[in-house]
Amino acid sequence: MKFSATTRSVQGSSASRRLRRAGRVPAIVYGGKGDAQNIELEHNEIFHALRKPGFGSSVLEMNLDSKTQKVLLRAVQWHPYKPIVLHVDFQRVRADVAIVTRVPLTYINADESPAVKLEDASINTILTDIEVSCLPADLPSEIVVDLGEMKNGDVLSVESIAAPEGVEILTAATETLATAAIVAVQAEEEPEEPEETEVDESTDTEADESTSEE
After folding, report:
1. 69 sits in which H/E element
2. Helix/strand/coil percent split, the chain, to 5
3. Does any domain span residue 163?
4. Does 128 lie in the same domain as 66?
5. What pLDDT, in 10s, does the model give residues 148-199?
6. Number of domains making up the chain
7. What values do phi and psi take at 131, rounded to 5?
8. 168 Cβ neighbours under 8 A, 6+ residues apart
9. Where would one find the signal peptide in this protein (predicted)?
10. Residue 34 lies inside a defined structural domain of this protein
């Protein structure tokens, strides 16, 4: 995936505000053999790029002042309630140096599992991504987790993932990926009807007779 950037010569809060008003986004790129460098991005381009699946977990090609650099997205600062990108951090990567990053998980075949199809259970997925270490060329855009064999009561952990070639999984092997369980539905109890109070008719009769004798 590619995006464009230009060198940012001005710094500071006031300069960043002026950039944003002009439809630009202040950013920084660091790591590798170079020093940290202040850059700026075109807001609409980076806004739509950030919405693409895999943009945050892929090695990106940044065209900075007509020169291409390989980078990873490291952090994004968003406006608290508006769809506006405020700041972005990138890290340079080298082809011969391993990187540590997070890769999204894609779960498949949950509806075809015995847990769901035969036992009327639900599968609850816990993790959305895992941490890995690998060379940039070996970085997968996603790791697929097959839930098709899960049964009611099963707990699937990270150790069940087959790591792609050249990729080392750093997330603890005991971390839970997904669980399968039957969700108990609590039946609503019908409200109890109040008991009717029985009237002692004999007492009323005796009282009426006593009154008539007087």
Report:
1. strand 67-78
2. 20, 35, 40
3. yes
4. no
5. 999 999 999 999 999 999 999 999 999 999 999 987 665 555 666 666 655 5
6. 2
7. -90, 135
8. 132, 133, 134
9. none
10. yes
